[in-house]
Amino acid sequence: MGDVGDVEKRGNDGGEGLVVSKDTAHKISQDPWYQAGFVLITGTNSAYVLGYSGSIMVPLGWAGGTVGLILTGAISLYANTLIARLHEVGGKRHIRYRDLAGHIYGKRMYFITWALQFLNLFMFNTGYLILAGQALKAVYVLYRDDGALKLPYCIAIAGVVSALFAFGIPHLSALRIWLGFSTFFTLIYVIAALVLSIKDGTNASARDYSIPGSKMNRIFGIIGSMGTLVSLGNTGILPEIQATLRPPAIRNMEKALRLQFTAGMLPLYAVAFTGYWAYGSSTTIYLLNSVNGPVWVLTLANIAAFLQTIVSLHIFASPMYEYIDTRYGMDKGNAFSFHSLLFRVGVRGGYLAINTLVAALLPFLGDFMSLIGAFCSFPVTFVLANHMYLTAKKSKISVPQRAWHWLNVVGFSCLAVASAVAALRFIVLHSKTYNVFADL
């Protein structure tokens, strides 16, 4: 099945005689569990958290938003744990999501899963580039509000910086020190958003917490927000992250997931609730555009959001990089040889150029957040996770357990379709309202 042909046996890799793929130009089986935990936390607390007050709480209100956020966290932990426990099914360590699907379902599903995952990751990265562009524009507006530096230009700058970062970081394991920087950047914009929101909320008069829009728009807004909800804490690339872990991979991944869905979720909840409390239904889709405070604090927070987004984008682009590097030419022996560097510049640069063009063409961040959830977290994390577990473990689970997994498969499939329709509807509506390459 394409790039899963070469394997080797390692008796100490989680079980006697466990088969581990060696057909990859990237590193596997070498990272501690807490490094994977910080990779997951980086994805969970990327600058996307600055949009959750506006994209989740505003269309759902206090009751729906609070229940939705807490319930989604619990369901996401459960679904990701299912995927983690399938990592060694059949006596193999499946280092890619498509490898796992191919082992369970066969060759056709291997290619379907890969196509679906590629689309999902492309949309994730499109959203990151829009977000990075918004952060840059927010900095510019603090000093000059003359409209000279437009959002598409900022997105283009973000694309160039992302490409430069991708040239120097050959694989996911090489992010080590950058995960520390990412955590530092996260603390800056989270603390700034919290402190300034609390100050504004304390000094503000009564806020309006009613759900805005016409009845039809409110209905589609609620449905679309479900897509955003399920993107919380879900990467869609869990097997690829788990592949970097030292054995025992399943136990270590479960530790990483517990870290992510406890300490890692607290900043997300804090920003989402505080932002909505402070500004009500007028909360913007990018929270730092709502807060008031010293210019230097807002500058620092937006620059931190921009830089953290560059690291997060690299995480979600890494499965595509791994595929291209393995199949088409990175030197496995030396990731920094002239050939390897030239290869990354050409191929990764081209990939990010296409991503940047799409982001600048349709810079509707809230809609992309909903679309990501519909196309990524629903099918990959929830639908496939439950069905793969059901298929792989069907002889070992009870009838009530099988019924439970089938209920998840059918229910999340329906929600995925509904959320995708709602997100696409809003993208179409906004495309009619704004020109392409809109300066939002």
From TrEMBL:
Primary subcellular site in the record, as a coarse category: membrane
Chain ranges passing through the membrane: 60-87, 108-130, 150-170, 177-198, 218-238, 259-279, 299-321, 341-362, 368-385, 406-428
InterPro entries for this protein: AA_transpt_TM (IPR013057)
Keyword Transmembrane applies: yes
Keywords (A to Z) from UniProt: Amino-acid transport, Membrane, Transmembrane, Transmembrane helix, Transport
Intracellular or extracellular location(s): Membrane
Positions of the Amino acid transporter transmembrane domain: 33-424
Protein name: Amino acid transporter transmembrane domain-containing protein
